[in-house]
Each structure stands twice: as C-alpha cells, then as structure tokens.
Design brief:
This protein is mainly α and about 425 residues long. The chain is built from 17 helices and 10 strands.
C-alpha cells in the first residue's frame, strides 16, 4: 500500500489512518514515498516494541546505502551519527554522553531552565495573542541545549535555523545545505574550544577524545551535531503537542491548574497521546525477521510508527482519550532498547518546568484559533504544530519557577 503520510489529512490527524492499518494488520508492506523504495510500516505496540529491541534491525545507514546511487550530499557528520550505528560502535559512543543526561545531572540544570522559562514568559503580553511554539516551545530547548554544549549566545539563532532546515521534508537541497552548515559550525566550535576550554559538555567530549578513549574528529563533530539537533527539535514538539492536548481537554487542563504538582506524573500520558516523534529513525533488516506474523526479508527498511503504537488499544485501552490518571510509563515516544532517547530526562524536565510556569502565569490561557486550522510539521519523522496561537487573557502574576542559583548566573537570555 502507499505511504499514508502522502495524504495531507494525515499530517493534521494521523491516528484514524494508523488505526485502520493496525486493524487490518499491524505490520504492512508500504511504498516509502517519492523515492519508490518499498519497506514495512509497523503500527502495533507489541510489534513496535519487538522491532525497536531486535538487533537484526540495523541502524547502520552507511552500510545500507553503500551500494545505492544517491544524489544526496549530506555531510558525513549528519549522515553517520550515533543513531545511525550499531554495537559495538553505538555502545561506545552512547556511553560517553549518557552520564550527562542522568536524572542527577539534569537536576543541576533545572534552575537554569526555570530562569530561561520565566524570562521568555515575561515577554508575553497580557490579554494578547502569542505563539506558544515560537515564543516558548522553540527558544527554550534551543537555549538549554546550546548552554549545555557551550554554543555562544550570538550564534544560537543561526544554529536554530540550520536545525530546522534539517527537517525540511521534500526539500533535500535545503536539508543537505543545512547539514554542511551545522557540521562546519560545530567543527569550528570544537577548534575554538581546544584553544579556550570551558566546562560544557562539548569540552568534556573533547577531553575524552584526547584521552584514552580517543574519539576521532569526525565522531566528535557528529556527536555534537546529533546532540544539538536532537536536544531541542523533539522537545519543541513535545511542548507544543502537550500544550495543545491540554487546551483541547478543558477538564484535564483545569485539574492541572489546581494541582500543578501533578504535572511531572502526567508527562508520560501527554507523550503517549501525541508523540513528538511520529516515526522512529531509519532501520533495516540484516536477515529475515518475522514481525506481527509477517516475514520481512533481509535488506528491507522497517518504519516503526511510534505514534501509532502509542494508540494501540491492545496496550492502552481507549487510546484516543487523554487520561491523566492513566499509567502510560510503557509508552514508546522515547523509543525502546539500546537506542532509547538519551535526552529523555532533560526533555521531561523542560516540559515540567515550562508547563507549570505557563499555567501559573497565565491561568486563563486558551486557543486563539480552531484546532483544525493549525498547520503541522510536513514530515513523518517528527510531529508537532508549526505554530500554536494562544490568548493569554489575564495573568496571575504567578510565582516564579524554581528560584535559586543556576549555571547561567549573570548571563542574559537571548
């Protein structure tokens, strides 16, 4: 069958199409778009979880495309990163960055995240229309991941632009150009940090590369690009999707307004309900695999629809209902297995702080346009509104989020 994402209605609401496919068969052969490549699309929860953890599904894109002609000119740092590798290379690279995103490490960042959030919300005019995406969901994760990596404030807008261009679906020329721009920038930043070391994550990766582990220059640039892009792109969609879900469910929104301490406990349900990553990154079979009763031959792409899996009624009863009391810990929005999102604790911390601060500062927040008029990202990989117009109505003047010392003390927020 054809790829459902070719239908414009799919971008607005993919879940009816996913439900129909899953009911027919949770693993189906599909045409994967204009390239004419064929593959399999996984829409069932059990099948998706199995596929995400199956070592026979490789993420080594370099090996898959080695003998295939391509006019693409992606920079190697973008094309061949940690997410596009298998063990033992993946194991080695992931180990170097995992400790940076532990719960304890993220806790140290929370005061900085809170300060950035409050500064951004200070700019929202009371009783006017603002764009939740452009005015909070985009800049907050960009500032946080750039702070973590040590990207200078003056460069952050340009870095954000390049990152967005990497998701310009249907425009390979723009994607390729952005890949070179961001990789060249990170190459220069690495060189600058060698001359003037600091305490950022990138500085620590450089030190590791110069020590016993010996990251190659390509690995160092590739890791930094991956962390930069993945560190804010999906979080932006997480924030936008979560805010929209709550605004469309007034009873659940009112509950959180009255009990803001519940926000951390409901983040998994918000992630399940509308996953910021619609389809997991590229995988292909290295040998024949039986999945959902279907035998998939070797050398075939497998697309795992995380959003569809999270709406599987076999795993989550009444999946199309937002239920903040649901135990949604088993959702697949962050993936599963060895490639599960290393930045999940940081994304949750940003969502917790941003949602609580917004509810406290603007308790009468509401949508400024009907939901069916929203425009969505034009890509199957990530899912989120490109803008989310809201009316701030009255402001409570709310309490500031998590005051205290932070790592950005004395630095202005751009």
């Amino acid at each position: 069958m054809n790829d459902p994402s070719e239908d414009p209605r799919f971008l607005q609401d993919p879940y009816p199409a996913y439900a129909a496919m899953r009911s027919a068969c949770p693993v189906q052969a599909v045409s994967t778009g204009s390239s004419g490549h064929s593959g399999y699309l996984v829409t069932g929860y059990a099948e998706a979880r199995q596929a995400l953890g199956d070592p026979r599904l490789s993420k080594n894109t370099a090996a898959f495309f080695a003998d295939k002609e391509s006019r693409r000119r992606l920079h190697p740092a973008v094309a061949h990163h940690m997410l596009a590798s298998d063990p033992p290379q993946h194991t080695r690279l992931r180990k170097l960055v995992t400790k940076t995103f532990t719960t304890g490490a993220v806790a140290e960042l929370r005061p900085f995240i809170a300060r950035v959030t409050e500064t951004l919300l200070d700019r929202w005019p009371v009783g006017k229309q603002v764009d939740f995406v452009a005015d909070l969901a985009v800049p907050l994760p960009v500032i946080v991941i750039c702070e973590l990596l040590g990207v200078p404030e003056a460069d952050r807008a340009e870095v954000q632009h390049w990152s967005g261009e990497l998701f310009a679906a249907g425009r390979p020329d723009r994607i390729d150009a952005a890949s070179h721009a961001v990789a060249e920038y990170m190459t220069d930043l690495v060189a600058a940090k060698r001359l003037r070391p600091g305490g950022a994550l990138l500085d620590r990766l450089i030190a590791t590369r110069d020590g016993t582990d010996r990251l190659s220059e390509r690995e160092l640039v590739s890791l930094s690009v991956l962390l930069l892009v993945a560190g804010h792109e999906t979080t932006t969609n997480f924030l936008g999707n979560a805010a929209l879900a709550l605004l469309r469910h007034p009873a659940e929104l009112e509950r959180l307004r009255g009990n803001p301490e519940d926000v951390p406990a409901v983040l998994d349900e918000l992630l399940r309900f509308d996953s910021p990553v619609g389809t997991a990154t590229f995988r292909y079979t290295t040998e024949a695999v039986t999945l959902g009763g279907n035998e998939i031959p070797a050398g075939v792409p497998v697309l795992i629809a995380l959003g569809a899996a999270n709406r599987d009624p076999e795993r989550f009863p009444s999946p199309d209902r937002l239920d903040l009391d649901r135990d949604a810990v088993g959702h697949l929005a962050f993936g599963h297995g060895i490639h599960r999102c290393v930045g999940a604790p940081l994304a949750k911390a940003e969502a917790d702080i941003a949602l609580r601060a917004t509810l406290a500062r603007f308790p009468e927040l509401r949508l400024a346009v009907p939901p069916d008029q929203l425009d969505w990202r034009h890509t199957r990989l990530v899912r989120g509104p490109t803008s989310l117009p809201v009316l701030t109505q009255g402001s409570s003047g709310g309490s500031r989020a998590e005051p205290g010392p932070d790592r950005g003390e004395g630095r202005p927020v751009p």
